[in-house]
Specification:
The protein is an all-alpha fold. It has nine helices and no strands. The chain has one domain. The longest helix is centred in the last third of the chain and has 39 residues.
Length: 215
């Protein structure tokens, strides 16, 4: 595998950014009882997991269907992830994940668990790109199972964060949450740059050839 499971977990959890999603989650569920908030948190995390599992097991077929080169897709995904990371470094939620119009529409709905929480806020373009990129690189069904386990673990972690969101926001405050978001953004940007460099070298092998000194 080109990507270790520990790195995949960190990258996926960072892209999903459940801590950064806390203010949005609380805003969208402000009129709900604590019990209803818990149900929405669990439903959103479950829907996110299902979305990413579909991307994991159908990702290769999707690329083949549209004739998309693996490394071109990987580079595009890393650009999306880098854009999200840059937004996180500025303590902002990337517009790639959601828009203000989607938030306003969500406020008119009885349930926000599926849209916009599960998709596109949690399981957005960056998370889906990462999962598909992993899926088309692995060489065995065992690796796919490991990938599914990572998705399940991230989904459980996301659910726990959303369930504890009122306490986390009270404990960390806006400043504390912004600091964590910036740290996650820096980690994510480093992962995106590394992945993008690998894809570039695969697409243009000459970039990976070191110049030979003379003398």
């Amino acid at each position: 595998m080109d990507i270790s499971l520990s790195v995949m977990f960190i990258a996926l959890f960072t892209i999903i950014d459940p801590i950064g999603t806390i203010p949005i989650f609380l805003a969208l569920t402000s009129g709900q009882t604590p019990q209803e908030q818990k149900r929405i948190a669990l439903a959103a995390s479950t829907a996110m997991m299902i979305t990413l599992l579909v991307a994991l097991f159908a990702g290769d077929d999707i690329l083949k269907l549209f004739g998309i080169n693996l490394y071109a897709f990987s580079l595009a995904g890393m650009i999306v992830i880098a854009s999200m990371a840059w937004s996180m470094l500025n303590a902002k939620m990337s517009q790639i994940q959601h828009t203000q119009a989607e938030d306003r529409e969500a406020e008119q709905k009885e349930s926000v668990a599926i849209v916009p929480l599960a998709f596109p806020i949690l399981a957005g373009a960056g998370a889906i790109s990462l999962v598909i990129g992993y899926a088309v690189r692995v060489s065995s069904f065992e690796d796919m199972i490991y990938g599914a386990v990572v998705i399940a673990m991230v989904s459980v972690a996301t659910a726990l964060v959303l369930l504890a969101s009122p306490r986390i926001q009270k404990l960390l405050g806006i400043t504390g949450m912004n600091i964590l978001t910036r740290i996650f953004g820096l980690l994510l940007l480093a992962i995106a740059i590394g992945g993008g460099a690998t894809a570039l070298i695969a697409l243009f092998p000459a970039l990976g050839i070191s110049p030979i000194g003379h003398g």
